[in-house]
Amino acid sequence: MRRSGTVAIGVLVWLGACGDTTPGPATGAEPVPRPSTSATLGIASPETGSVVRTDQVTLVVELEGATLTDITSTDLRPDEGHLHVTLDDQLISMTSGLEQVLPDLAPGEHLLKVELVANDHAPFDPRVVAAVSFRVKHS
């Protein structure tokens, strides 16, 4: 599996940008521990540093060790979840697919992140995130 060199940086940025979504009891007790996973995630397209010459790009995600589902559940499994896709720190989709077209991209630099989350939409612990940066330059 090919991985982006910016994954570590993307994880740090992602962790800073996302609040704690850990569900916990309404009584103020300690939060419920999050499940972990051995799944790995990467972004095959677009590549870090690439220049896109149209207003759209096709996101292609590589996932090993887990399957994607579109079902939301509190029955958490370490080998099952779905993807949260953000562009420039804005959530743009929650998907169970490995490919999608991102339309209407403005010219300039963009940061694209994908996170594998558990069936309840909250992150695994540790988080499973891939990130790339790319530039849109309309012809």
List keywords for this structure.
139 residues; mainly beta; Immunoglobulin-like; six-stranded mixed sheet; three-stranded antiparallel sheet; 1 helix; disordered N terminus
Q: How is this structure best summarized?
A:
The protein is built from 1 helix and 9 strands, in the order H-E-E-E-E-E-E-E-E-E.
Describe the structure.
This protein is mainly β and about 140 residues long. It has one domain (about 5-15, about 35-135): Immunoglobulins (Immunoglobulin-like, Sandwich). It has one helix at about 5-15; strands at about 40-45, 50, 55-65, 65-70, 80-85, 90-95, 100, 110-115, 125-135. The strands form 2 sheets. Strands 2, 4, 5, 6, 8 and 9 form a 6-stranded mixed beta sheet that branches. It has a 3-stranded antiparallel beta sheet with strand order 1-3-7, with no helix packed on it. Strand 8 and strand 9 form a beta hairpin. It is elongated. The protein starts with 6 loop residues before the first helix and ends with a strand.
